[in-house]
Amino acid sequence: MSQSINAAEVAAAFTEAFGSTPDGVWAAPGRVNLIGEHTDYNEGFVLPFAIDRAAAVAIKLRTDNVARLRSSYGEAPTVTIDLDTLSHETMQGWTAYPLGVVWVMRQMGIAIGGFDLFLHSTVPSGAGLSSSAAIECAVATAFNELEAAGLSLNELVLVGQRAENEVVGAPTGILDQSASLLSTDGHAVFLDCRTQESKLVPLDLAAAGLLILVVDTKVTHAHATGGYSARRASCELGAEVLGVSALRDVAAADLPEASGLLDEETFRRVRHIVTENQRVLDTIAVLDDAGPVAIGELLTASHVSMRDDFEISCPELDLAVNTALAHGALGARMTGGGFGGSAIALIPVAEEATVRDAVVHAFAEASFTAPDIFAVSPAPGARKIS
Ligand code: ADP
Ligand code: MG
After folding, report:
1. pLDDT tens digits for 9-61?
2. In sequence order, what are the beta bridge partners of 213?
3. CB of 79 within 8 A of CB of 127?
4. Of all atoms in ligand 1, which is nearest to the CA of residue 128?
């Protein structure tokens, strides 16, 4: 199957797997975060957009209490489970994402019974483009409709987040699910993660003669463990010492005083969050004023802050960013949770081949795994596609 989701193909794959016709097919996109990294769980600002790669689920309700799940990804066999046995022990591997959503919705009193589910995703896994939220949001959107549950988009965001936090065990914020559910074609989503208020911001790259290239470094991250949780803990410590409920409440003007109260490392973590929130607000203002051609410096400043203050970059991401900048990118930064995954570069359309070639060459020179490089454009959010 190709990178664009074809509903008929997904339905046909469902039929091949389960021998019947699905009740429908739902798709939810992955996302690129334009700017605003690790600010979500600090109740700050983010500016993601949905990309033209998505997870699609074909689902048919059953009359018993059994769920059968299959993915087109790899050689994973069909997983069969009695829904009455759903627990943290039984929701393992990739099925933790769809079953986690079902578990959360059942906890909310939505009477989801047995079903067959076929997943096909074109969002690369572990590349920082949120293949996980794409699955969660496709499944949540599907059952919201199949069970006529009437949850709002903001409620579905929280369903996906709870699945990720409580079932998968990744302490992530609401960025990914909000992007996947709230996006519309040609726009980014400006989201206040404290209030869940959002505003669509036009992002017409083509009209400005620009495109965004994703460089998937192929360095995979694991958010359930390690660095992501450690960064979150640092932010919580910083907020506690500074006497605020979340780092959202620390302003740039408070930083000199904060530096005297925090240890050196925690201070740098805090400074990233504080300056990143401001960069999101500045990006909105610049987009409004001068359009995407003028946001490059903010993107690059965000990368520098993540590299030096938050320390979530890696040599492959830095090389992708530096090489893109040296070959015509207006701005570049790692995107997503970090420790691997993808970088984005904002480039004039005419420079695409030059930047691609330069990054491929630089990775080969450094003996890094060859990256996957592709353009993305702002796409619609989660929806029924068949
Ligand atoms: P990201 O969200 O950045 O892609 P995560 O680690 O949050 O990375 O999510 C990746 C996980 O999502 C994979 O380990 C796998 O369990 C699941 N996943 C992603 N794509 C698929 C797919 N097509 N089929 C089955 N599981 C998938
Ligand atoms: Mg994820």
Report:
1. 999 999 999 999 999 999 999 999 999 999 999 999 999 999 999 999 999 99
2. 345, 375
3. no
4. 3
Question: Residue 115 is inside which H or E element, if any?
Answer: strand 115-121
Spans of all domains in the chain: 7-202, 206-376
Q: What is the C-alpha to C-alpha distance for residues 85 and 344, in angstroms, rounded to an integer?
A: 42
In the CATH scheme, what is the homologous superfamily, with its name and number, of domain 206-376?
Answer: GHMP kinase, C-terminal domain (3.30.70.890)
Position 75 scores a pLDDT of: 79
Spacing, Cα 129 to ligand 1 middle (Å): 10
Indicate the DSSP class of residue 349.
G
Q: Please say whether the beta carbons of 95 and 69 come within 8 A.
A: yes
- 71-80, 136-145, 312-321: which has the minimum mean pLDDT? 71-80
Q: What is the number of helices (H) and of strands (E) in the chain?
A: 11, 12
CATH 3.30.230.10: does it fit domain 7-202?
yes
Distance, CA of 131 to CA of 176 (rounded, Å): 9
Q: Which residues face 332 on adjacent strands? A: 345
Closest by CA position to 27, among listed 46, 8, 48, 49: 8
Q: 242 — phi, psi (to 5°)?
A: -85, -5
Residue of 74, 133, 67 whose CA lies nearest to 102 = 67
Token pair for 64 = 């018993």
Pocket test for ligand 1, best of 57, 92, 94, 137 (most atoms within 8 A of CB): 94
Give Rg (Cα) of the chain.
21
Convert the pLDDT of each residue in 202-247 to its tens digit. Answer: 999 999 999 999 999 999 876 656 899 999 999 999 999 999 999 9
- Residue 376: helix, strand or coil by DSSP? strand
pTM to 2 decimal places: 0.95
Tell me, rounded to whole angstroms, the distance of Cα 260 from its chain centroid.
35
CA distances from 199 to 27, 47, 109, 192, 312 (A): 22, 10, 30, 9, 28
Ligand 1, CB cutoff 6 Å, lining residues: 71, 73, 94, 97, 119, 121, 125-132, 223, 336
Q: List active site positions.
A: 176
Give residue 168's pLDDT band: very low, low, confident or very high (50, 70, 90): very high
